[in-house]
C-alpha cells in the first residue's frame, strides 16, 4: 500500500528529510524537498534537489509521478521553499507546477533571494492555485541558512569547529594535540569538510601541524583550503603547498606581503588574495568573506587555531559551531583554549546557542548549535555592509 500521512505537518517533515539529502551537492543553491499527495494525504510522488545545475525538487517530484497519471486537481504539492519563477540553469519551476494542474501548493518558507522574494508565490496565485505559506516555517528556514546568509550579505555561512578536552584545552603546554578526539569524531569532521566550499586555518596551525586539510574519503565537494597568513610566510615545503595541484590552496595575506614570496607561491599553483589590514594588522576577515561570497562559496569551515577562532568570534562572524569534547584532562595554566581574541567583557553578553544538538560519539560529546549574539542569531541580525 502507498504511504499515507496522518497530517500536513508530517508531509512537510518528509519534504525536509528529502531536502537534506542534497547537502554538499546543491550549493550554492538551497536544499529543497518536495512531496505530492492526494486529497487523503496519500503519497503520490516525492523528490529533492539533487545536484547544482540539475532539476529542482518540484520537477523531480513531478517526474516521479506514477504512469497511471493521477488527477492532480485533487493533489497538493508540498515544497520546503518557494518555487522559482525565473530562468537560471533550469526553467522556472512555477511553469511546471502550473502545467501539472495542481489545485494547491503548500510552501514551507519564502525564498530570500532578491531575484525571487515572492515572485514564485504570486505567479502560482495568478494561475488560480491555492497557496499556503509557513507550514513548519522555522524548520524550513533552518534548512537554507547558508543560502540565506549568501543571498542577504554576499558572505558564506561560517561554521567553527574544534576539539577540546574536558577542561577546555586544544593542546598541552608543549603543543601536543594528536589526538584529542576519537577516531569516530574525526570521521565526522571529514564528513563536515566534504560539505564545505572552503576550510580555513591560521598560519600558526600550519606551522605547528603541517596539515593537509583534505577530506578523507573524498566528500561531495572539494573544499578550497584557505590560510590566514599575513606575510605569506608559509613554507614552500609544507604539505599544503606541495599538494596545491590536488585541492585548491588560497593564501589570504596583507597587501604588503612580499611580492617575491607571493610569486613563488603562485608558480606552485597557490592563489593569493591580498587583504587590507584590520585594526590588529591582520587580514580583514569581512573583506575576505566578501571575496569568497563573490565566488558563490556558501559554507566555510573555520578550524583554528585559537587566535583565528577568537578573531571570528570577536567580529561576530560565526554562524554555527561544531565542538567535540573528549573525556580527557590536560591541565596547565598555559595550555591553550579553543577561542582566544579579545573575548566578551560581561557574562550577560556571552554567545548562546539555539537549534542545539548533543550526541555521544565513541566516548566524545559532539555539540552543534547556531550562535545567538545579543538575543539574535547571525541570520536574524543580517546587515549588508
Number of distinct helices: 12
**Major sheet details:** 10 strands, mixed
**Residue share in β-strands:** 15-25%
Task: Write down the Rg.
Answer: 23 Å
Detailed description of the structure:
The chain is elongated and about 70 Å long. Strands 6, 7, 8, 9, 10, 11, 12, 13, 14 and 15 form a ten-stranded mixed beta sheet that branches. The chain is 26% helix and 24% strand. It has twelve helices and 15 strands.
Kindly summarize this structure in a few lines.
With 385 residues, this protein is an alpha/beta fold. Helices cover 26% and strands 24% of the residues.
Task: Provide tags for this entry.
385 residues, five-stranded mixed sheet, 12 helices, 24% strand
Write the layout of secondary structure elements.
Elements (H helix, E strand, L loop, with lengths): L7 H13 L12 E5 L5 E6 L8 H7 L12 E6 L11 H8 L3 E6 L9 H8 L3 E4 L3 H7 L1 H9 L3 E9 L17 H11 L4 E5 H7 L14 E5 L10 H4 L6 E6 L4 H9 L3 E5 L9 H9 L5 E6 L1 H9 L5 E7 L25 E10 L2 E10 L2 E2 L8
Parallel strand pairs: 3-4, 4-5, 6-11, 6-12, 7-8, 7-11, 8-9, 9-10
Antiparallel strand pairs: 1-2, 1-3, 12-14, 13-14, 14-15
Helix pairs in contact: 3-4
Amino acid at each position: 500500500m502507498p504511504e499515507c500521512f496522518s497530517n500536513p505537518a508530517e508531509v512537510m517533515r518528509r519534504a525536509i528529510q528529502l531536502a537534506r539529502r542534497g547537502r554538499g551537492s546543491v550549493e550554492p543553491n538551497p536544499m529543497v524537498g518536495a512531496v505530492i499527495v492526494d486529497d487523503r494525504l496519500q503519497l503520490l510522488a516525492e523528490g529533492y534537489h539533487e545536484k547544482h545545475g540539475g532539476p529542482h525538487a518540484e520537477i523531480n517530484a513531478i517526474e516521479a509521478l506514477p504512469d497511471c497519471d493521477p488527477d492532480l486537481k485533487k493533489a497538493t504539492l508540498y515544497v520546503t521553499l518557494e518555487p522559482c519563477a525565473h530562468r537560471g540553469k533550469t526553467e522556472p519551476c512555477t511553469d511546471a507546477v502550473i502545467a501539472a494542474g495542481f489545485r494547491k501548493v503548500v510552501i514551507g518558507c519564502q525564498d530570500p533571494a532578491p531575484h525571487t522574494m515572492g515572485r514564485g508565490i504570486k505567479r502560482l496565485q495568478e494561475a488560480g492555485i491555492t497557496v499556503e505559506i509557513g507550514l513548519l516555517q522555522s524548520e524550513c528556514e533552518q534548512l537554507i541558512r547558508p543560502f540565506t546568509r549568501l543571498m542577504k550579505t554576499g558572505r558564506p555561512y561560517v561554521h567553527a569547529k574544534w576539539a577540546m578536552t574536558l577542561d577546555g584545552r586544544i593542546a598541552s603546554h608543549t603543543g601536543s594535540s594528536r589526538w584529542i578526539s576519537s577516531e569516530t569524531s574525526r570521521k565526522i569532521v571529514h564528513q563536515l569538510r566534504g560539505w564545505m566550499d572552503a576550510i580555513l586555518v591560521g598560519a600558526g596551525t600550519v606551522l605547528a601541524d603541517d596539515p593537509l586539510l583534505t577530506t578523507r574519503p573524498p566528500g561531495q565537494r572539494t573544499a578550497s583550503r584557505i590560510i590566514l597568513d599575513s606575510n605569506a610566510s608559509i613554507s614552500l615545503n609544507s604539505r599544503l603547498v606541495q599538494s596545491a595541484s590536488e585541492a585548491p590552496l588560497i593564501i589570504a595575506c596583507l597587501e604588503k606581503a612580499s611580492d617575491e614570496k607571493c610569486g613563488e607561491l603562485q608558480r606552485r599553483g597557490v592563489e593569493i588574495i591580498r587583504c587590507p589590514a584590520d585594526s590588529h594588522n591582520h587580514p580583514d576577515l569581512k573583506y575576505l568573506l566578501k571575496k569568497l561570497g563573490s565566488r558563490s562559496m556558501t559554507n566555510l569551515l573555520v578550524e583554528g587555531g585559537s587566535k583565528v577562532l577568537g578573531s571570528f568570534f570577536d567580529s561576530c562572524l560565526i554562524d554555527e559551531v561544531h565542538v567535540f569534547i573528549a573525556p580527557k584532562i590536560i591541565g596547565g595554566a598555559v595550555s591553550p583554549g579553543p577561542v582566544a581574541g579579545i573575548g566578551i567583557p560581561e557574562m550577560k553578553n556571552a554567545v548562546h546557542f539555539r537549534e542545539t544538538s548533543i550526541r555521544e560519539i565513541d566516548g566524545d560529546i559532539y555539540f552543534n548549535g547556531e550562535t545567538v549574539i545579543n538575543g539574535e542569531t547571525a541570520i536574524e541580525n543580517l546587515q549588508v555592509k
